[in-house]
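Need residues for this backbone.
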C-alpha cells in the first residue's frame, strides 16, 4: 500500500551515532532499540509524532508506522518509507525536504530492518531526541570542587575560595582585577545590596573612621541581622515566584487577603529559614503543618499567580482554562525551584531539554487537586474556641428563627386560602424590566419622584436597583417627553459611585433617551426636576431597556414602587403605585401576603422575636471570625490522568501518574505514585524529591540567584533556565562550590551572603578600564565590580528615606498607589497624589497585575503576571519626566528641604553638605558646593532638592 506524498513533510536532519553507520554495513540482526529507534528519533519524529503529526502521519509507534502500511514487514519495494527517502524512477528522494538526504549506510540499515521483518519491541515509543540529554551539565551531580591554586595572585586574593576561582578565570583571559573600592563606596554598596536602603550619614562616617580589620565583617553581620534584609531579599523572591495581588486576565479582580504570604516570605528570610524547608512549605505547607498558619500560608505560593476566573459555561473551554491554570503552577514551580522550562513539554516532548511530555503530565497529576480561592486558616485551638463560643448562640438563633418563620408561614397559609381575592386585587401585569408604564389623570408637576419599596432579588430592599431611562410625558395631543436633559430636566438621587468602574454607571441618571449609561441607586428615591411646571399624565421607566449596556448580573430591578409629584418640593401627591400589579416573583408574593395577613398579635410576637434575634445576631457578629486567606482549596482529583495530545484536554493520550522528572533519574532518586494517591501525598512527595540532597538543580539554581543579586548577573545569566536554551555558566566550578557551601550550611542563605561579600571580587572598585572591557565588556569575569542602577523599589525607598518620610512599619495589608475601580472587570488608575499612608517600603505596595504605578513602573518594576527572575534596566525619557514632575517627588523635595533646614540651619553651605551626605554618602566638592548654593539662592532650597533627587549618582550603585 502506497500513501500519497502529501502525507509527508520535512524531516529534520541530525547526525547519527557512528555506531549506527558501522552496524549498517554488516548483515547481523538489526537491533531496533539501539539502531532504528535513534535513527527515527533524530531524523523523523521531530515532525511526525502523535503531538505534531505533520502530514497526518506519526512514526512514533508500530500502530502509526506498521499498521498504516507505511512500512510492510519483509517487503522493501512495497514500503513507502523507503520510497520517499530513496526516490525511484529517476525521481529524487522526497524526505527530508530541507535537510541532507539519508546516507547510504542509513538507508541500508532501514532496508535490512524491513527485510528482517520490521520488528518493533512492544511498548516502545519513539521520542524526539532533545539537544540536552541526561548528560547535560546542570543535571549532573554537584562536583566536589577544590578551589584552584593561584600562586600568582596577591595574598588577599588567595584567602577566600571565591577569589581563587575568580582569579583563575581572569588569569586565563590575561586580565587583572581592579583595586579595592573606597570605604564610602563599599558601605553604600553593601547596605543597598542587603537592605535596599542607603546607609545613614552617621553609619558612613563611623565605618570610614573605623580602620579595624573587623569593621567590614561586622558591617555585613549587622546588615544581615537587620529586618530590612528580609524586605529586600523577600522582594527578590517574590519576583521569582510571580507574586501578585490580583487575579489577572480580563477580569483582574483584586485579592485583598494574600498579604500574609508576602509577610511569611519576609519573615522566613529574616529568620534565615533553611531554604529546603522553605521550598517544601511552598509546595506542601498545609500538609507538613496543618492548622499551623505560619507554615500553612507557605502553600499560597501555588495560587499566587494569575488565575482566569471567568467561569466559562462551555465544558470544552472550562477544561482548557483549568488546564491553563495547572500549567501556570507547573511553570512557576519548575522554573523557580529547578531552573527548568518544564512548561515547554505541555504539547510535546521538550525540543531542547531532557523533559518528556510524560514528565509534564506527571506534574500535572501532582497539582490537579489545587484550586484557587480563599479559606479560613487558623490553629485547631482557635477553631475549637470559636466553635464553642458560637454553639449556644447558633442554637438560640435557630430556635428564634424557627418561631418567627412559623408565624410568617401561618400568615402566608391564610393568604394562600384567598387566592381568588388576591388575583382580583393584583389585577395589572407585573413590572417589566424592559419598560414599565404608569398612566393617571392629568396633573401639573414641576417634580416627579420614584419611591422604591422593594427590588426583584430582595423584596425588602430599597437600594441597589438600576434605572437606565426615566420618561415623563405631557398630557396633550402631541405628547412630549419632558424629562430629557436637553429640555433642561435634571435627575437627583443617591448613586453607587465609590469603586465603580468608570463609565459603567452614571453618578446621576442619564435622561437623554439614548438608553446607554445606567444609574445604580444607593438610596430609595429618584427625583426628576423639570425646567418648568408641566401637565403630565404618563410615566415610563426601565431597568433593562433593549439596546442598553449588558447586565452581567451586577444590579437589581425595581419590584415595588410609588410615584409622587409636586409643584414646590414640599407638598407631594401620589399619582401611581405598583400595589395592584402582580408580584414579580415568589419572594415578592410572600412579602405582600405577609403585609396583608399578619394580625396585630402576629406583628407583636414577630417584633419581639425580631428584637431577640437581632441581639443574638449581634452577639454572633462580635465573635471574631477566623482569618480567611487566599491560600487555595484542595479537591481529590484522583484521575485517571492522561497526556493531552497537542496540549488539548479534548485529545487524551496515554495514562500517566504523579511522578518525578525522568531526566534526573540518574542523579536524583525518582518516584512514581499511583493515580489514587492522596492529593496531599503527591505534593509532599514532589517537594521532598526537589530538595533531596541528590537533586543537583535546586542548590545550583539558588546559589546562582544569590550570586546574581550581588553582581548583577548570575554565573548562569538565565536564572530560570539551566537547560539548553539557557546560558552556559561563566564559572561552572565556582557554581558547584557555592552550591555545595549552601548544602553544607544547611540551606541557609546568610552564610553564603557573607562568604560572597567578604570576597575581594565583591569589594573591588567599579572603575572602567578600556583594555579590560575589550576582552570582557560585561565584566562577567569580574575584573571590576559591575555597577548597577537601583531597582524601582529602591528608587522610591531611597527618596522616602533621605527626605525623612519613610515609614518602616512592617507587615499587614499593603498600601495602594492606584485607585481600584471594579465592576465586572477591574481598572487600576494611578494616583496623582501620594499621601502619608503610602510612605512605606515599596515591598508593601499592593502589587496588582496590569497596574501602573508611575515611578515604579517607569523604573522597570515588572508585571507580576509572570516570573521575573531578572529585572530589566532601561533608560527612557519617562523616567526623567516622572522624577522631575510627579507630585510624589515634588512633595519629597519639599520634605527634604525642610529636613535640611532643621538639621543644617540656615547656612546654605551647611545645607548643601548635609544634602550630599544624605543623598550620596559623601561631601560635595568645592565646585559642587558653589553651584548648589547658587541654585538654591536663585530658585530656593526645594528646587535644589528636586535637582538632587534627579541625579544619576543617587540611583546608580558603584
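Answer:
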Amino acid at each position: 500500500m502506497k500513501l500519497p506524498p502529501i502525507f509527508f513533510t520535512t524531516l529534520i536532519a541530525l547526525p547519527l551515532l557512528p555506531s549506527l553507520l558501522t552496524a549498517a554495513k554488516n548483515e547481523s540482526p538489526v537491533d531496533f532499540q539501539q539502531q532504528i529507534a535513534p535513527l527515527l528519533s533524530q531524523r523523523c519524529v521531530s515532525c511526525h509524532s502523535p503531538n505534531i503529526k505533520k502530514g497526518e502521519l506519526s512514526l512514533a509507534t508500530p500502530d502509526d508506522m506498521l499498521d498504516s502500511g507505511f512500512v510492510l514487514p519483509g517487503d522493501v519495494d512495497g514500503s513507502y518509507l523507503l520510497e520517499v527517502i530513496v526516490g525511484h524512477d529517476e525521481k529524487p528522494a522526497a524526505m527530508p525536504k530541507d535537510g541532507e538526504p539519508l546516507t547510504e549506510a542509513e538507508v541500508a540499515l532501514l532496508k535490512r530492518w524491513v527485510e528482517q521483518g520490521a520488528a518493533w519491541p512492544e511498548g516502545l515509543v519513539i521520542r524526539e531526541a532533545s539537544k540536552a540529554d541526561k548528560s547535560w551539565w546542570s543535571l549532573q551531580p554537584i562536583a566536589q570542587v577544590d578551589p584552584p591554586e593561584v600562586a600568582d595572585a596577591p595574598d588577599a586574593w588567595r584567602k577566600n575560595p571565591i577569589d581563587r576561582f575568580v582569579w583563575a578565570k581572569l588569569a586565563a583571559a590575561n586580565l587583572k582585577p581592579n583595586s579595592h573600592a573606597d570605604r564610602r563606596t563599599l558601605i553604600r554598596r553593601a547596605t543597598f545590596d542587603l537592605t535596599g536602603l542607603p546607609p545613614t550619614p552617621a553609619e558612613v562616617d563611623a565605618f570610614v573612621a573605623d580602620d579595624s580589620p573587623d569593621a567590614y565583617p561586622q558591617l555585613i553581620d549587622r546588615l544581615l541581622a537587620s529586618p530590612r534584609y528580609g524586605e529586600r531579599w523577600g522582594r527578590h523572591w517574590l519576583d521569582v515566584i510571580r507574586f501578585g495581588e490580583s487575579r489577572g486576565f480580563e477580569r483582574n479582580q483584586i485579592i485583598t487577603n494574600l498579604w500574609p504570604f508576602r509577610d511569611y516570605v519576609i519573615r522566613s528570610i529574616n529568620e534565615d529559614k533553611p531554604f529546603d524547608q522553605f521550598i517544601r512549605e511552598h509546595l506542601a505547607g498545609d500538609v507538613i503543618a496543618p492548622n499551623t498558619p505560619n507554615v500553612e500560608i507557605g502553600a499560597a505560593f501555588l495560587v499566587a499567580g494569575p488565575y482566569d476566573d471567568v467561569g466559562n459555561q462551555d465544558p470544552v473551554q472550562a477544561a482548557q482554562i483549568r488546564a491553563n491554570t495547572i500549567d501556570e503552577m507547573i511553570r512557576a514551580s519548575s522554573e523557580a525551584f529547578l531552573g527548568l522550562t518544564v512548561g515547554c513539554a505541555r504539547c510535546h516532548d521538550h525540543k531542547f531539554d531532557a523533559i518528556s511530555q510524560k514528565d509534564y503530565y506527571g506534574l500535572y497529576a501532582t497539582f490537579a487537586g489545587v484550586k484557587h480561592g480563599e479559606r479560613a486558616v487558623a490553629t485547631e485551638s482557635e477553631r475549637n474556641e470559636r466553635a464553642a463560643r458560637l454553639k449556644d448562640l447558633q442554637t438560640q438563633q435557630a430556635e428564634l428563627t424557627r418561631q418567627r418563620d412559623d408565624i410568617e408561614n401561618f400568615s402566608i397559609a391564610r393568604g394562600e386560602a384567598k387566592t381568588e381575592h388576591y388575583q382580583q386585587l393584583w389585577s395589572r401585569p407585573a413590572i417589566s424590566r424592559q419598560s414599565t408604564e404608569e398612566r393617571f389623570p392629568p396633573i401639573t408637576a414641576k417634580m416627579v419622584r420614584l419611591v422604591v419599596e422593594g427590588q426583584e432579588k430582595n423584596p425588602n430592599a430599597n437600594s441597589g436597583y438600576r434605572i437606565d431611562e426615566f420618561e415623563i410625558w405631557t398630557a396633550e395631543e402631541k405628547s412630549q417627553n419632558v424629562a430629557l436633559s436637553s429640555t433642561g430636566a435634571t435627575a437627583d438621587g443617591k448613586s453607587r459611585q465609590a469603586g465603580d468602574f468608570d463609565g459603567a454607571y452614571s453618578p446621576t441618571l442619564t435622561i437623554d433617551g439614548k438608553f446607554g449609561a445606567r444609574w445604580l441607586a444607593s438610596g430609595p428615591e429618584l427625583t426628576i426636576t423639570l425646567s418648568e411646571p408641566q401637565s403630565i399624565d404618563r410615566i415610563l421607566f426601565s431597568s433593562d431597556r433593549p439596546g442598553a449596556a449588558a447586565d452581567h448580573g451586577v444590579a437589581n430591578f425595581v419590584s415595588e414602587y410609588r410615584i409622587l409629584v409636586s409643584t414646590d418640593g414640599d407638598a407631594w401627591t401620589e399619582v401611581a403605585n405598583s400595589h395592584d400589579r402582580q408580584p414579580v416573583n415568589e419572594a415578592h408574593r410572600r412579602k405582600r401576603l405577609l403585609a396583608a395577613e399578619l394580625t396585630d398579635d402576629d406583628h407583636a410576637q414577630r417584633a419581639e422575636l425580631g428584637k431577640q434575634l437581632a441581639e443574638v445576631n449581634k452577639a454572633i457578629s462580635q465573635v471574631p471570625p477566623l482569618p480567611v486567606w487566599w491560600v487555595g482549596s484542595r479537591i481529590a482529583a484522583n484521575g485517571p490522568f492522561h497526556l493531552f495530545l497537542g496540549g488539548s484536554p479534548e485529545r487524551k493520550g496515554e495514562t500517566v501518574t504523579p511522578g518525578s522528572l525522568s531526566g534526573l533519574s540518574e542523579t536524583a532518586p525518582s518516584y512514581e505514585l499511583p493515580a489514587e494517591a492522596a492529593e496531599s501525598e503527591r505534593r509532599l512527595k514532589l517537594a521532598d524529591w526537589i530538595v533531596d540532597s541528590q537533586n543537583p538543580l535546586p542548590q545550583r539554581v539558588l546559589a546562582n540567584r544569590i550570586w546574581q543579586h550581588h553582581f548583577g548577573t548570575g554565573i548562569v545569566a538565565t536564572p530560570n533556565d539551566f537547560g539548553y536554551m539557557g546560558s552556559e555558566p561563566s564559572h561552572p566550578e565556582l557554581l558547584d562550590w557555592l552550591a555545595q557551601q549552601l548544602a553544607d550550611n544547611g540551606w541557609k542563605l546568610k552564610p553564603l551572603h557573607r562568604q560572597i561579600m567578604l570576597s575581594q571580587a565583591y569589594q573591588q572598585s567599579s572603575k572602567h578600564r578600556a583594555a579590560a572591557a575589550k576582552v570582557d565588556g560585561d565584566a562577567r569575569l569580574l575584573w571590576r565590580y559591575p555597577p548597577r542602577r537601583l531597582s524601582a523599589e529602591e528608587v522610591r525607598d531611597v527618596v522616602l528615606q533621605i527626605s525623612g518620610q519613610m515609614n518602616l512599619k512592617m507587615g499587614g495589608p499593603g498600601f495602594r498607589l492606584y485607585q481600584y475601580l471594579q465592576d465586572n472587570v477591574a481598572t487600576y488608575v494611578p494616583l496623582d497624589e501620594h499621601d502619608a499612608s503610602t510612605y512605606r517600603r515599596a515591598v508593601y505596595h499592593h502589587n496588582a497585575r496590569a497596574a501602573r504605578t508611575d515611578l515604579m513602573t517607569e523604573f522597570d518594576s515588572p508585571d507580576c503576571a509572570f516570573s521575573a527572575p531578572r529585572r530589566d534596566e532601561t533608560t527612557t525619557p519617562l523616567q526623567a519626566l516622572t522624577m522631575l514632575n510627579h507630585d510624589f517627588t515634588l512633595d519629597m523635595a519639599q520634605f527634604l528641604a525642610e529636613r535640611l533646614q532643621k538639621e543644617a540651619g540656615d547656612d546654605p553651605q551647611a545645607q548643601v553638605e548635609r544634602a550630599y551626605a544624605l543623598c550620596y554618602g559623601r561631601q560635595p566638592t568645592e565646585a559642587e558646593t558653589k553651584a548648589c548654593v547658587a541654585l538654591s539662592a536663585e530658585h530656593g532650597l526645594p528646587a535644589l532638592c528636586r535637582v538632587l533627587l534627579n541625579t544619576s549618582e543617587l540611583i546608580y550603585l558603584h
